[in-house]
Amino acid sequence: MKEKMIPFLQEAACVKPSRRQLDWLAMEGYAFIHFGMNTFTNREWGNGKENPQKFNPQKLDCDQWVAAVKAAGLKGLILTAKHHDGFCLWPSQYTDHSVKNSPFKGDIVKEASDACRRGGIKFGVYLSPWDRNSKYYGTPEYNDYFCNQLTELLTNYGEIFCVWFDNACGEGKNGKKQEYDFPRYIELIRRLQPNAVIFNDYGPDTRWCGNEAGSSRYAEWAVMPSELCKYAEVQTGAGPLAEGARLDFLYNAMQNLGTMPGILYSKGLTFVPSEIDVSIRKGWFWHPNEDPKSLEELFQIYLTSVGGNACLNLNIPPTTDGLIDERDVARLKDLGGLIRHEFSRKIPCTVTKLEGFPPTQPRYRVTLEKPCRSLKYVALRENIAEGQRVEEFRIFSDEETRFAMYDGTTVGNKRICALRDPFAHQNPLTSTFQPQVKSIDIQITAARGAADLSEISVYADAGAYHASSTTGAKKGLFRRLLGK
Ligand code: FUL
To answer: Mean pLDDT over all residues of the chain?
Structure first.
Protein backbone atom coordinates (compact mmCIF):
# COMPACT_ATOMS: atom_id res chain seq x y z
CA MET A 1 0.00 0.00 0.00
CA LYS A 2 2.77 2.42 0.94
CA GLU A 3 4.40 2.12 -2.48
CA LYS A 4 1.08 2.81 -4.16
CA MET A 5 0.19 5.90 -2.14
CA ILE A 6 2.55 8.53 -3.59
CA PRO A 7 2.12 7.58 -7.28
CA PHE A 8 -1.66 7.56 -6.78
CA LEU A 9 -1.67 11.02 -5.19
CA GLN A 10 0.50 12.27 -8.04
CA GLU A 11 -2.07 10.96 -10.49
CA ALA A 12 -4.95 12.36 -8.43
CA ALA A 13 -3.32 15.79 -8.51
CA CYS A 14 -3.31 15.74 -12.32
CA VAL A 15 -6.92 14.79 -13.10
CA LYS A 16 -7.87 17.51 -15.56
CA PRO A 17 -11.03 19.19 -16.83
CA SER A 18 -12.00 19.27 -20.50
CA ARG A 19 -12.21 22.52 -22.46
CA ARG A 20 -16.01 22.42 -22.26
CA GLN A 21 -15.87 22.00 -18.46
CA LEU A 22 -13.47 24.95 -18.13
CA ASP A 23 -15.77 27.13 -20.26
CA TRP A 24 -18.70 26.06 -18.10
CA LEU A 25 -16.84 26.79 -14.83
CA ALA A 26 -15.98 30.26 -16.15
CA MET A 27 -19.70 31.04 -16.44
CA GLU A 28 -20.10 30.69 -12.65
CA GLY A 29 -23.88 31.11 -12.75
CA TYR A 30 -26.83 30.72 -15.09
CA ALA A 31 -30.60 30.50 -14.86
CA PHE A 32 -32.95 27.55 -14.92
CA ILE A 33 -36.34 28.27 -16.48
CA HIS A 34 -39.07 25.85 -15.43
CA PHE A 35 -41.98 26.64 -17.71
CA GLY A 36 -44.55 24.28 -19.18
CA MET A 37 -47.89 22.62 -18.58
CA ASN A 38 -47.33 22.66 -14.80
CA THR A 39 -47.31 26.46 -14.90
CA PHE A 40 -50.94 26.34 -16.07
CA THR A 41 -52.12 23.51 -13.80
CA ASN A 42 -50.35 24.98 -10.75
CA ARG A 43 -48.50 21.73 -10.10
CA GLU A 44 -44.89 20.58 -9.77
CA TRP A 45 -45.30 17.28 -11.59
CA GLY A 46 -47.94 16.63 -14.24
CA ASN A 47 -49.31 13.19 -15.07
CA GLY A 48 -49.06 13.46 -18.86
CA LYS A 49 -52.84 13.52 -19.37
CA GLU A 50 -53.14 17.31 -19.42
CA ASN A 51 -55.00 18.87 -22.31
CA PRO A 52 -52.62 20.95 -24.51
CA GLN A 53 -55.41 23.54 -24.71
CA LYS A 54 -54.48 24.59 -21.19
CA PHE A 55 -51.12 25.94 -22.31
CA ASN A 56 -51.70 29.56 -23.24
CA PRO A 57 -49.18 32.24 -22.24
CA GLN A 58 -50.70 35.49 -23.48
CA LYS A 59 -47.81 37.89 -22.98
CA LEU A 60 -44.78 35.69 -23.59
CA ASP A 61 -41.64 37.81 -23.80
CA CYS A 62 -38.37 35.91 -23.67
CA ASP A 63 -36.40 39.15 -23.93
CA GLN A 64 -37.91 40.04 -20.55
CA TRP A 65 -36.61 36.70 -19.17
CA VAL A 66 -33.13 37.40 -20.53
CA ALA A 67 -33.07 40.93 -19.12
CA ALA A 68 -33.98 39.60 -15.65
CA VAL A 69 -31.36 36.87 -15.87
CA LYS A 70 -28.66 39.32 -16.95
CA ALA A 71 -29.54 41.77 -14.18
CA ALA A 72 -28.52 39.09 -11.67
CA GLY A 73 -25.18 38.64 -13.47
CA LEU A 74 -26.11 35.16 -14.75
CA LYS A 75 -24.47 34.12 -18.01
CA GLY A 76 -26.91 31.63 -19.54
CA LEU A 77 -30.35 30.06 -19.39
CA ILE A 78 -31.52 26.43 -19.42
CA LEU A 79 -35.13 25.90 -20.50
CA THR A 80 -37.29 22.89 -19.57
CA ALA A 81 -38.05 21.91 -23.18
CA LYS A 82 -39.92 18.87 -21.82
CA HIS A 83 -40.69 18.07 -18.17
CA HIS A 84 -41.91 14.72 -16.78
CA ASP A 85 -45.44 15.27 -18.19
CA GLY A 86 -44.04 14.93 -21.72
CA PHE A 87 -45.48 18.23 -23.02
CA CYS A 88 -43.00 19.76 -25.49
CA LEU A 89 -42.35 23.49 -25.65
CA TRP A 90 -41.34 23.12 -29.29
CA PRO A 91 -43.49 21.68 -32.11
CA SER A 92 -41.77 18.27 -32.15
CA GLN A 93 -42.66 16.15 -35.15
CA TYR A 94 -42.59 13.01 -32.97
CA THR A 95 -45.54 13.77 -30.69
CA ASP A 96 -48.85 15.61 -30.67
CA HIS A 97 -48.40 16.53 -27.04
CA SER A 98 -46.79 19.90 -27.64
CA VAL A 99 -47.27 23.63 -28.20
CA LYS A 100 -48.49 22.92 -31.73
CA ASN A 101 -51.81 21.71 -30.32
CA SER A 102 -52.13 24.51 -27.80
CA PRO A 103 -53.81 27.88 -28.41
CA PHE A 104 -50.32 29.40 -28.21
CA LYS A 105 -49.12 27.54 -31.33
CA GLY A 106 -45.59 29.11 -31.39
CA ASP A 107 -42.19 27.62 -30.52
CA ILE A 108 -40.95 28.56 -27.07
CA VAL A 109 -37.55 26.91 -27.53
CA LYS A 110 -37.01 29.13 -30.55
CA GLU A 111 -38.20 32.29 -28.82
CA ALA A 112 -35.98 31.60 -25.81
CA SER A 113 -32.87 30.63 -27.77
CA ASP A 114 -33.23 33.67 -30.07
CA ALA A 115 -33.67 35.98 -27.07
CA CYS A 116 -30.52 34.52 -25.44
CA ARG A 117 -28.50 35.15 -28.57
CA ARG A 118 -29.85 38.70 -28.84
CA GLY A 119 -28.99 39.29 -25.20
CA GLY A 120 -25.51 37.73 -25.45
CA ILE A 121 -26.06 34.86 -23.00
CA LYS A 122 -25.79 31.10 -23.58
CA PHE A 123 -28.72 28.76 -24.08
CA GLY A 124 -29.22 25.21 -22.80
CA VAL A 125 -32.00 22.60 -22.65
CA TYR A 126 -33.53 20.35 -20.03
CA LEU A 127 -35.11 17.28 -21.59
CA SER A 128 -36.71 14.96 -19.07
CA PRO A 129 -36.03 11.29 -19.80
CA TRP A 130 -39.06 10.40 -17.63
CA ASP A 131 -42.06 10.94 -19.89
CA ARG A 132 -45.51 10.28 -18.48
CA ASN A 133 -47.22 10.92 -21.79
CA SER A 134 -45.29 8.95 -24.41
CA LYS A 135 -46.80 5.65 -25.46
CA TYR A 136 -43.26 4.35 -26.00
CA TYR A 137 -42.14 4.85 -22.42
CA GLY A 138 -41.08 1.52 -20.92
CA THR A 139 -40.11 0.00 -24.31
CA PRO A 140 -36.83 0.06 -26.30
CA GLU A 141 -38.54 2.35 -28.86
CA TYR A 142 -38.61 5.08 -26.25
CA ASN A 143 -34.84 5.52 -26.57
CA ASP A 144 -35.35 6.17 -30.32
CA TYR A 145 -38.10 8.66 -29.51
CA PHE A 146 -35.87 10.39 -26.96
CA CYS A 147 -32.91 10.57 -29.39
CA ASN A 148 -35.19 11.98 -32.09
CA GLN A 149 -36.28 14.72 -29.72
CA LEU A 150 -32.70 15.40 -28.68
CA THR A 151 -31.75 15.67 -32.36
CA GLU A 152 -34.48 18.25 -32.97
CA LEU A 153 -33.32 20.33 -30.02
CA LEU A 154 -29.63 20.07 -30.83
CA THR A 155 -29.89 20.87 -34.53
CA ASN A 156 -32.56 23.55 -34.84
CA TYR A 157 -31.71 26.07 -32.15
CA GLY A 158 -28.04 27.04 -32.60
CA GLU A 159 -25.27 26.54 -30.06
CA ILE A 160 -26.34 24.74 -26.86
CA PHE A 161 -24.08 25.12 -23.80
CA CYS A 162 -25.70 22.48 -21.59
CA VAL A 163 -27.97 19.46 -21.87
CA TRP A 164 -29.51 18.86 -18.46
CA PHE A 165 -30.77 15.37 -17.58
CA ASP A 166 -32.89 14.72 -14.60
CA ASN A 167 -32.56 11.12 -13.50
CA ALA A 168 -36.16 10.68 -12.37
CA CYS A 169 -37.41 7.34 -13.64
CA GLY A 170 -41.05 6.57 -12.85
CA GLU A 171 -43.57 4.30 -14.51
CA GLY A 172 -45.09 5.11 -17.87
CA LYS A 173 -48.81 4.82 -18.56
CA ASN A 174 -48.16 1.21 -19.60
CA GLY A 175 -46.99 0.64 -15.99
CA LYS A 176 -43.41 0.06 -17.11
CA LYS A 177 -40.15 1.70 -16.13
CA GLN A 178 -37.70 2.75 -18.79
CA GLU A 179 -34.08 1.75 -19.12
CA TYR A 180 -32.43 4.95 -20.28
CA ASP A 181 -29.67 4.46 -22.83
CA PHE A 182 -27.37 7.19 -21.52
CA PRO A 183 -24.27 6.08 -23.48
CA ARG A 184 -26.32 6.52 -26.68
CA TYR A 185 -27.66 9.93 -25.62
CA ILE A 186 -24.15 11.08 -24.70
CA GLU A 187 -22.69 9.93 -28.01
CA LEU A 188 -25.42 11.80 -29.89
CA ILE A 189 -24.88 15.03 -27.94
CA ARG A 190 -21.12 14.87 -28.46
CA ARG A 191 -21.69 14.52 -32.19
CA LEU A 192 -24.28 17.28 -32.54
CA GLN A 193 -23.07 19.77 -29.91
CA PRO A 194 -19.46 18.95 -29.02
CA ASN A 195 -19.13 22.03 -26.77
CA ALA A 196 -22.18 21.30 -24.62
CA VAL A 197 -21.67 20.03 -21.08
CA ILE A 198 -23.94 17.19 -20.04
CA PHE A 199 -25.42 17.39 -16.56
CA ASN A 200 -26.37 14.01 -15.19
CA ASP A 201 -26.33 12.19 -11.86
CA TYR A 202 -23.43 10.00 -13.02
CA GLY A 203 -21.56 12.48 -15.22
CA PRO A 204 -20.04 12.75 -17.78
CA ASP A 205 -19.43 16.52 -17.39
CA THR A 206 -21.24 18.02 -14.41
CA ARG A 207 -23.08 16.46 -11.50
CA TRP A 208 -25.79 17.23 -8.96
CA CYS A 209 -24.67 18.79 -5.68
CA GLY A 210 -27.03 16.45 -3.82
CA ASN A 211 -29.68 18.90 -2.57
CA GLU A 212 -32.14 21.46 -3.88
CA ALA A 213 -31.65 23.92 -1.05
CA GLY A 214 -28.69 25.80 -2.50
CA SER A 215 -26.07 24.60 -0.04
CA SER A 216 -22.64 23.38 -0.98
CA ARG A 217 -20.33 20.94 0.78
CA TYR A 218 -17.67 22.13 3.21
CA ALA A 219 -15.15 20.55 0.81
CA GLU A 220 -16.32 20.42 -2.80
CA TRP A 221 -14.12 18.37 -5.11
CA ALA A 222 -14.32 18.14 -8.88
CA VAL A 223 -12.07 15.08 -8.75
CA MET A 224 -14.49 12.22 -8.18
CA PRO A 225 -14.35 8.45 -7.72
CA SER A 226 -15.42 6.87 -11.02
CA GLU A 227 -17.84 4.70 -9.04
CA LEU A 228 -20.02 7.79 -8.72
CA CYS A 229 -19.43 9.22 -12.19
CA LYS A 230 -19.65 6.15 -14.37
CA TYR A 231 -20.10 8.06 -17.65
CA ALA A 232 -16.98 10.21 -17.20
CA GLU A 233 -13.49 9.44 -18.46
CA VAL A 234 -11.35 7.61 -15.85
CA GLN A 235 -7.99 9.41 -15.65
CA THR A 236 -6.03 7.44 -13.00
CA GLY A 237 -5.25 3.95 -11.86
CA ALA A 238 -6.83 2.44 -8.75
CA GLY A 239 -6.37 3.92 -5.26
CA PRO A 240 -4.04 2.16 -2.79
CA LEU A 241 -7.01 0.72 -0.84
CA ALA A 242 -9.13 -0.20 -3.86
CA GLU A 243 -8.57 -3.92 -3.86
CA GLY A 244 -11.72 -5.66 -2.67
CA ALA A 245 -13.11 -2.28 -1.54
CA ARG A 246 -16.77 -1.30 -1.93
CA LEU A 247 -17.99 2.11 -2.95
CA ASP A 248 -21.50 1.12 -4.01
CA PHE A 249 -22.96 3.27 -1.22
CA LEU A 250 -21.69 6.46 -2.88
CA TYR A 251 -24.40 8.88 -3.87
CA ASN A 252 -24.44 12.59 -4.68
CA ALA A 253 -26.22 13.47 -1.47
CA MET A 254 -23.23 12.41 0.70
CA GLN A 255 -20.94 15.01 2.23
CA ASN A 256 -17.64 13.25 1.60
CA LEU A 257 -17.39 12.49 -2.07
CA GLY A 258 -13.98 13.49 -3.34
CA THR A 259 -12.24 13.77 0.03
CA MET A 260 -9.15 11.68 0.72
CA PRO A 261 -10.86 8.62 2.27
CA GLY A 262 -13.21 8.38 -0.70
CA ILE A 263 -10.54 8.49 -3.39
CA LEU A 264 -8.14 6.04 -1.73
CA TYR A 265 -10.74 3.26 -2.12
CA SER A 266 -11.67 4.17 -5.70
CA LYS A 267 -10.89 2.13 -8.80
CA GLY A 268 -9.96 5.36 -10.62
CA LEU A 269 -10.72 9.07 -10.67
CA THR A 270 -12.65 11.36 -13.00
CA PHE A 271 -13.13 15.15 -13.27
CA VAL A 272 -16.80 16.05 -12.72
CA PRO A 273 -17.56 19.37 -10.97
CA SER A 274 -20.71 20.08 -9.01
CA GLU A 275 -23.69 22.23 -9.98
CA ILE A 276 -25.93 23.81 -7.36
CA ASP A 277 -29.49 23.92 -8.66
CA VAL A 278 -31.95 25.82 -6.52
CA SER A 279 -35.15 27.75 -7.13
CA ILE A 280 -35.67 31.43 -6.35
CA ARG A 281 -38.98 30.25 -4.89
CA LYS A 282 -40.10 27.13 -3.08
CA GLY A 283 -41.29 25.39 -6.23
CA TRP A 284 -39.52 24.82 -9.53
CA PHE A 285 -42.65 26.00 -11.40
CA TRP A 286 -44.43 29.29 -10.74
CA HIS A 287 -47.24 29.24 -8.19
CA PRO A 288 -49.19 32.42 -7.45
CA ASN A 289 -48.97 31.98 -3.67
CA GLU A 290 -45.17 31.66 -3.44
CA ASP A 291 -42.68 34.46 -2.83
CA PRO A 292 -39.08 34.76 -3.92
CA LYS A 293 -36.36 33.92 -1.42
CA SER A 294 -34.93 36.87 0.48
CA LEU A 295 -31.96 38.77 -0.88
CA GLU A 296 -29.89 37.59 2.11
CA GLU A 297 -30.61 33.96 1.33
CA LEU A 298 -29.84 34.35 -2.36
CA PHE A 299 -26.60 36.14 -1.59
CA GLN A 300 -25.54 33.36 0.79
CA ILE A 301 -26.33 30.84 -1.93
CA TYR A 302 -24.13 32.82 -4.31
CA LEU A 303 -21.24 32.92 -1.83
CA THR A 304 -21.30 29.20 -1.16
CA SER A 305 -21.99 27.96 -4.70
CA VAL A 306 -19.96 30.23 -7.02
CA GLY A 307 -17.58 30.71 -4.09
CA GLY A 308 -17.55 26.99 -3.24
CA ASN A 309 -16.09 25.42 -6.38
CA ALA A 310 -19.45 24.89 -8.09
CA CYS A 311 -21.66 26.63 -10.62
CA LEU A 312 -25.00 28.13 -9.60
CA ASN A 313 -28.11 27.16 -11.58
CA LEU A 314 -30.76 29.53 -10.22
CA ASN A 315 -34.32 28.67 -11.23
CA ILE A 316 -36.62 31.55 -12.17
CA PRO A 317 -40.07 30.33 -13.22
CA PRO A 318 -42.20 32.40 -15.63
CA THR A 319 -45.84 33.05 -14.79
CA THR A 320 -48.94 31.92 -16.73
CA ASP A 321 -48.56 35.14 -18.75
CA GLY A 322 -45.15 33.94 -19.91
CA LEU A 323 -43.25 36.65 -18.01
CA ILE A 324 -40.90 36.54 -15.03
CA ASP A 325 -42.85 37.67 -11.96
CA GLU A 326 -42.11 41.32 -11.17
CA ARG A 327 -41.18 40.39 -7.58
CA ASP A 328 -38.52 38.03 -8.91
CA VAL A 329 -37.34 40.63 -11.43
CA ALA A 330 -36.76 43.09 -8.58
CA ARG A 331 -35.00 40.47 -6.43
CA LEU A 332 -32.70 39.45 -9.29
CA LYS A 333 -31.79 43.06 -9.95
CA ASP A 334 -30.92 43.49 -6.28
CA LEU A 335 -28.92 40.27 -6.23
CA GLY A 336 -26.83 41.43 -9.20
CA GLY A 337 -26.48 44.87 -7.59
CA LEU A 338 -25.37 43.41 -4.27
CA ILE A 339 -22.80 41.10 -5.88
CA ARG A 340 -21.34 44.05 -7.76
CA HIS A 341 -21.45 46.20 -4.62
CA GLU A 342 -19.49 43.65 -2.61
CA PHE A 343 -17.03 42.48 -5.27
CA SER A 344 -16.35 45.23 -7.76
CA ARG A 345 -13.55 47.00 -5.83
CA LYS A 346 -10.46 44.91 -5.18
CA ILE A 347 -8.09 46.35 -2.59
CA PRO A 348 -4.75 47.31 -4.18
CA CYS A 349 -2.08 44.93 -2.88
CA THR A 350 1.02 42.96 -3.86
CA VAL A 351 1.15 39.18 -3.69
CA THR A 352 4.44 37.31 -3.12
CA LYS A 353 4.97 33.59 -2.87
CA LEU A 354 7.29 33.25 0.13
CA GLU A 355 10.59 31.36 -0.08
CA GLY A 356 11.26 28.24 1.94
CA PHE A 357 7.89 26.51 1.80
CA PRO A 358 7.40 23.07 0.21
CA PRO A 359 5.45 22.82 -3.08
CA THR A 360 2.43 21.21 -1.43
CA GLN A 361 2.39 23.85 1.33
CA PRO A 362 3.13 27.21 -0.29
CA ARG A 363 2.55 30.44 1.58
CA TYR A 364 1.47 33.65 -0.10
CA ARG A 365 1.90 37.09 1.45
CA VAL A 366 -0.57 39.77 0.46
CA THR A 367 0.70 43.24 1.37
CA LEU A 368 -1.95 45.91 1.28
CA GLU A 369 -1.08 49.25 -0.22
CA LYS A 370 -2.80 50.91 2.73
CA PRO A 371 -3.52 49.31 6.15
CA CYS A 372 -7.19 48.40 6.44
CA ARG A 373 -9.58 47.81 9.35
CA SER A 374 -12.49 46.35 7.46
CA LEU A 375 -11.30 43.46 5.30
CA LYS A 376 -14.30 41.39 4.34
CA TYR A 377 -13.55 38.75 1.70
CA VAL A 378 -10.65 36.98 0.07
CA ALA A 379 -11.39 35.24 -3.23
CA LEU A 380 -9.01 32.49 -4.30
CA ARG A 381 -8.62 30.47 -7.46
CA GLU A 382 -6.54 27.43 -8.06
CA ASN A 383 -4.97 26.68 -11.42
CA ILE A 384 -7.68 24.09 -12.02
CA ALA A 385 -6.74 23.46 -15.67
CA GLU A 386 -3.83 21.44 -14.28
CA GLY A 387 -5.92 19.69 -11.61
CA GLN A 388 -7.57 20.38 -8.25
CA ARG A 389 -5.09 19.96 -5.41
CA VAL A 390 -5.62 22.10 -2.32
CA GLU A 391 -6.99 20.07 0.61
CA GLU A 392 -6.76 22.71 3.32
CA PHE A 393 -5.62 26.27 3.84
CA ARG A 394 -5.76 29.09 6.36
CA ILE A 395 -5.70 32.83 6.15
CA PHE A 396 -4.27 34.97 8.92
CA SER A 397 -3.43 38.60 9.36
CA ASP A 398 -0.01 40.23 9.84
CA GLU A 399 2.59 37.53 10.09
CA GLU A 400 3.71 38.40 13.60
CA THR A 401 0.20 38.28 15.06
CA ARG A 402 -1.09 35.17 13.30
CA PHE A 403 -4.71 35.90 14.02
CA ALA A 404 -6.87 33.44 12.12
CA MET A 405 -9.31 34.98 9.68
CA TYR A 406 -10.40 31.87 7.83
CA ASP A 407 -9.86 28.10 7.86
CA GLY A 408 -10.71 26.54 4.54
CA THR A 409 -10.77 23.24 2.74
CA THR A 410 -10.94 23.09 -1.07
CA VAL A 411 -10.27 26.03 -3.41
CA GLY A 412 -10.81 24.74 -6.95
CA ASN A 413 -12.38 27.06 -9.49
CA LYS A 414 -13.17 29.73 -6.88
CA ARG A 415 -13.36 29.98 -3.12
CA ILE A 416 -14.90 33.10 -1.60
CA CYS A 417 -13.74 33.38 2.00
CA ALA A 418 -15.92 35.58 4.21
CA LEU A 419 -13.31 36.68 6.76
CA ARG A 420 -13.60 36.75 10.53
CA ASP A 421 -12.51 39.93 12.26
CA PRO A 422 -9.02 38.97 13.44
CA PHE A 423 -9.31 41.24 16.48
CA ALA A 424 -12.81 40.30 17.57
CA HIS A 425 -11.66 37.67 20.05
CA GLN A 426 -8.72 39.52 21.56
CA ASN A 427 -8.90 41.14 24.95
CA PRO A 428 -9.07 44.87 24.18
CA LEU A 429 -7.47 45.73 27.55
CA THR A 430 -4.33 43.67 27.10
CA SER A 431 -4.05 43.64 23.34
CA THR A 432 -1.42 46.01 22.03
CA PHE A 433 -2.26 45.48 18.39
CA GLN A 434 -3.56 48.25 16.23
CA PRO A 435 -6.92 47.32 14.73
CA GLN A 436 -5.43 47.62 11.27
CA VAL A 437 -4.31 44.90 8.92
CA LYS A 438 -1.18 45.62 6.89
CA SER A 439 -0.82 42.22 5.29
CA ILE A 440 -2.40 38.81 5.27
CA ASP A 441 -0.86 35.41 4.68
CA ILE A 442 -2.51 32.54 2.87
CA GLN A 443 -0.97 29.28 3.93
CA ILE A 444 -1.83 26.11 2.07
CA THR A 445 -1.58 23.54 4.84
CA ALA A 446 -2.19 20.40 2.75
CA ALA A 447 -2.40 19.60 -0.96
CA ARG A 448 -2.31 16.50 -3.17
CA GLY A 449 0.46 17.90 -5.34
CA ALA A 450 2.29 21.17 -5.93
CA ALA A 451 -0.34 23.82 -5.23
CA ASP A 452 -0.71 26.93 -7.34
CA LEU A 453 -3.11 29.76 -6.59
CA SER A 454 -3.84 31.57 -9.83
CA GLU A 455 -5.76 34.42 -8.21
CA ILE A 456 -5.87 36.11 -4.82
CA SER A 457 -8.25 39.07 -4.52
CA VAL A 458 -9.01 40.99 -1.35
CA TYR A 459 -12.13 43.07 -0.69
CA ALA A 460 -13.01 45.50 2.09
CA ASP A 461 -16.43 46.20 3.53
CA ALA A 462 -18.16 48.27 0.85
CA GLY A 463 -20.70 49.83 3.22
CA ALA A 464 -24.48 49.46 3.29
CA TYR A 465 -26.28 48.22 0.20
CA HIS A 466 -29.64 49.78 -0.53
CA ALA A 467 -31.85 47.10 -1.98
CA SER A 468 -34.97 48.21 -3.81
CA SER A 469 -36.92 44.98 -3.24
CA THR A 470 -36.23 44.41 0.46
CA THR A 471 -38.70 45.43 3.15
CA GLY A 472 -37.62 47.62 6.06
CA ALA A 473 -37.57 44.71 8.52
CA LYS A 474 -35.43 42.59 6.24
CA LYS A 475 -33.03 45.48 5.66
CA GLY A 476 -32.21 45.53 9.39
CA LEU A 477 -31.61 41.79 9.38
CA PHE A 478 -29.46 42.12 6.31
CA ARG A 479 -27.28 44.74 7.94
CA ARG A 480 -26.75 42.40 10.90
CA LEU A 481 -25.87 39.56 8.59
CA LEU A 482 -23.26 41.64 6.81
CA GLY A 483 -21.98 42.97 10.12
CA LYS A 484 -23.01 46.55 9.44
C1 FUL B 1 -36.07 17.22 -10.24
C2 FUL B 1 -37.43 17.21 -10.96
O3 FUL B 1 -38.22 16.13 -10.54
C4 FUL B 1 -38.02 18.55 -10.60
O5 FUL B 1 -39.34 18.68 -11.07
C6 FUL B 1 -37.13 19.62 -11.21
O7 FUL B 1 -37.17 19.58 -12.61
C8 FUL B 1 -35.69 19.46 -10.70
C9 FUL B 1 -34.73 20.41 -11.30
O10 FUL B 1 -35.24 18.15 -10.89
O11 FUL B 1 -35.49 16.00 -10.15
So the answer is: 93
The per-residue pLDDT for range 49-95, each reduced to its tens digit, is 999 999 999 999 999 999 999 999 999 999 999 999 999 999 999 99
Query: How far, in whole angstroms, is CA 400 from its chain's centroid?
Result: 38
**pLDDT of amino acid 418:** 96
Numbered ranges of CATH 2.60.120.260 in the chain: 349-460
Take atom 2 of ligand 1 and give the residue whose Cα is closest.
166
Tell me what pLDDT residue 168 has: 86
Distance (angstroms) between ligand 1 centre and the Cα of 81 equals 13
Q: What is the domain class of 2-342 according to CATH?
A: alpha beta
pLDDT tens-place string over residues 94-146: 999 999 999 998 999 999 999 999 999 999 999 999 999 999 999 999 999 99
Residue 432: the pLDDT is: 58
Which residue among 35, 80, 284 is best mutated to probe the pocket of ligand 1, counting the most ligand atoms within 8 A of its Cβ?
A: 284
Which protein residue has the closest C-alpha to ligand 1 atom 10? 166
166 lines ligand 1 (CB under 6 A): yes
Of residues 244 and 478, more confidently modeled? 244
* pLDDT for the residue 373: 84
CATH number at 349-460 = 2.60.120.260
Q: Where in the chain is the domain with CATH 3.20.20.80?
A: 2-342
**Residue with CA nearest ligand 1 atom 4:** 284
